[in-house]
Amino acid sequence: MEGEVFGLLGPNGAGKTTTIRMLTCLVSPSDGSGRVAGYDVVRDASRVRETVGVLTENPSLYERLTAYENMDFFAEAYNLTNLTEKEARIKALLQFFDLWDRRNDRVAKFSRGMKQKLAIARALVHNPPILFLDEPTTGLDPESAKGIRELMESLSRHEKHTILLSTHHLEDAERLCNRVMIINRGRSVIVGSPDELRDKIAGEPVIKIALVRVDERIIDAVKGLEHVKQVAFDDSAATLAVTVDYAKSATPEIVRSIVHADGKILSVNVQRPSLEDAYLRLVKGEST
Questions:
Q1: How far, in Å, CA of 225 to CA of 54, rounded?
Q2: Which alpha helices (DSSP H) does the chain contain, by range?
Q3: pTM
Q4: Same domain, 181 and 237
Q5: Residue 279: inside a domain, yes or no?
Q6: Residue 194: pLDDT band by 50, 70, 90 thresholds?
């Protein structure tokens, strides 16, 4: 889907990098088939390469060349022959990635984060509709990683590039991805949105309620509700953990019963597993 960020998750050796290399026609598949933008990765390899941009696990830049020279070299490789259009494209990308002022510096002088930005800019020089990014934030300091995440958000939401993101950083996938696929030993375990994966392993929902105080009247009022399965309370923290069969319908009933029992509510939260929880449970289940 245009503008979608699709995450590819899995343990080391699961096949994430190999999958990207096959889909971008860097290696040929030994079996099976694949299509990118409607093109077969074996029969239409040249059309696939024209359609995609790729950041491999290593930036693969020419460090003796300047940032501009790297961009110019790859623009030529993608047959951007019109000088005016090529120069305008390179300038626009280097400005977008905050590298224009460093365009004449050799890449060897760049930080890891700057190299990652330049490598992504290089992958976009021919304006491909689909972008493959393999571990784009690995090895970066927190500030540089944040910058790369913000760039991915901008590329998908505003520039409408479709992105396949391979990552070990589940917080990146949770924040950026519309859908994810978990793979293990070269096979798909599950595909869905982060919410769908969390729901897959969530079990019965738990509503956590913080109050000014908890007393027996409040506890009895909550226990008597139809959708409530179990009530646990912590006197020291003045909290209730209420297990229910369906959070959407149970939550307003619980809040109403507490208020009627003269309880003063500070916060209400439906506890849900993180994408990391879902990932670990699903991968572990696949491995057993």
A1: 55
A2: 16-23, 45-51, 67-77, 83-96, 112-123, 142-157, 170-176, 194-202, 216-223, 247-260, 275-287
A3: 0.75
A4: no
A5: no
A6: confident
Task: Tell me the pLDDT tens digit for each residue of 226-272.
Answer: 889 999 999 889 999 999 988 888 999 999 999 999 999 999 998 87
Q: Which CA distances in Å does 267 have to 96, 209, 240, 244, 248?
A: 42, 6, 11, 17, 16
Together in a domain, 105 and 181? yes
Distances (CA, A) of 7 to 21, 107, 199, 246, 283: 15, 29, 18, 29, 15
Could you tell me the residue range of the domain that residue 34 belongs to?
Answer: 5-198
Q: Is residue 135 part of a domain?
A: yes
User: From CA 251, how far away is CA 209, in angstroms rounded?
Assistant: 10
Q: Return the percentage of the chain with pLDDT > 90, whole number.
A: 63
Token pair 């070990």 is found at: 168
If asked whether residues 45 and 150 sit together in one domain, one would say yes
